[in-house]
């Protein structure tokens, strides 16, 4: 968000504190003061004050020159997960799906430009990156991201296409806005998305949207497979029917259990690239 667009109530120091927390990730579990300052575009003095404040609050541990997050940071996400019933409703259905197809399955929601894993049942590992609840990846190259975005209003889709940098993760990644726009239209028509080795060579995934009781797409469920074991035809023929049946059961439970629309954690079209992990494929 630009400085001009910020509301009068915007607290810059709070934004900076969150940026410091987000500067730590799987690739950088420990950082020096200089690294935090550079990553967050802060002066060393400002970064030092923020880190020491987080340390006083128990969210950061200092070990010599290095700073690390502490497990207390998990409290920040737990408040969301504990109040968000969709993962709790979906998980037993994901477990049943994985038992049927013997492939990994996940439930994801859209948060800005990323998808975020909120429930996951793995089998064998078929990608280079470890995937856990809370992991996020660029939405444009994921089956779950595409199937959610495809059901957003056309105006929002156009804004996303204009603002998103379509980076090639493999030789197969769709990097043309026109091609991605056409693919999103196809996904909306057919009701599911298939991504074939655009995220990582050898990885295929299929995803279907999850709608709340009001009919709004709030999440997506996927099945990820190794391309060497599953052709595109077999993904559609053998896996897609099980996926669609699972989504239907989740939606039926949502209609019974959830008293109102299920909100995703964030529906904005942009988020800071400084808080995103390096692109890697989900499963």
Automatic annotation (TrEMBL):
It comes from the Bacteria. Coiled coil: none annotated. One of its GO terms (biological process) is negative regulation of DNA-templated transcription. Residues 72-256 form the IclR-ED domain. Residues 11-71 form the HTH iclR-type domain. Keywords: DNA-binding, Transcription, Transcription regulation. InterPro entries: GAF-like_dom_sf, HTH_MetabolicPath_Reg, PcaR_PcaU, Tscrpt_reg_IclR_C, Tscrpt_reg_IclR_N, WH-like_DNA-bd_sf, WH_DNA-bd_sf. The keyword Transcription applies. Residues 263-283 have a biased composition (Low complexity). GO terms for molecular function: DNA binding; DNA-binding transcription factor activity. Pfam families: HTH_IclR (PF09339), IclR_C (PF01614). Residues 257-283 are annotated as: Disordered. Gene3D superfamilies: 3.30.450.40, Winged helix-like DNA-binding domain superfamily/Winged helix DNA-binding domain. This is IclR family transcriptional regulator. The lineage of its organism: Bacteria, Bacillati, Actinomycetota, Actinomycetes, Kitasatosporales.
């Amino acid at each position: 968000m630009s400085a001009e667009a910020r509301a009068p109530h915007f607290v810059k120091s709070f934004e900076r504190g969150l940026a410091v927390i987000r500067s730590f990730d799987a690739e950088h579990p420990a950082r020096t003061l200089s690294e935090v300052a550079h990553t967050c575009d802060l002066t060393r003095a400002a970064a030092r004050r923020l880190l020491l404040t987080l340390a006083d609050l128990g969210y950061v541990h200092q070990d010599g020159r290095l700073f690390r997050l502490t497990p207390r940071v998990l409290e920040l996400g737990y408040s969301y997960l504990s109040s968000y019933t969709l993962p709790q409703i979906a998980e037993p259905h994901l477990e049943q799906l994985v038992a049927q197809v013997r492939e990994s399955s996940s439930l994801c929601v859209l948060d800005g430009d990323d998808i975020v894993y909120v429930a996951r049942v793995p089998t064998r590992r078929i990608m280079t990156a470890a995937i856990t609840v809370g992991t996020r990846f660029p939405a444009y190259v994921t089956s779950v991201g595409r199937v959610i975005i495809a059901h957003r209003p056309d105006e929002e889709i156009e804004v996303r296409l204009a603002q998103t940098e379509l980076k090639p993760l493999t030789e197969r990644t769709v990097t043309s806005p026109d091609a991605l726009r056409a693919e999103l239209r196809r996904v909306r028509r057919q009701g599911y998305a298939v991504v074939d080795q655009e995220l990582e060579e050898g990885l295929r995934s299929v995803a279907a949207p999850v709608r709340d009781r009001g009919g709004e797409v709030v999440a997506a469920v996927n099945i990820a497979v190794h391309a060497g074991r599953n052709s595109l035809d077999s993904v559609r023929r053998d896996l897609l029917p099980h996926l669609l049946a699972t989504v239907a059961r989740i939606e039926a439970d949502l209609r019974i259990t959830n008293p109102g629309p299920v909100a995703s954690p964030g529906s904005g079209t942009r988020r800071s690239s400084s808080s995103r992990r390096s692109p890697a494929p989900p499963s």
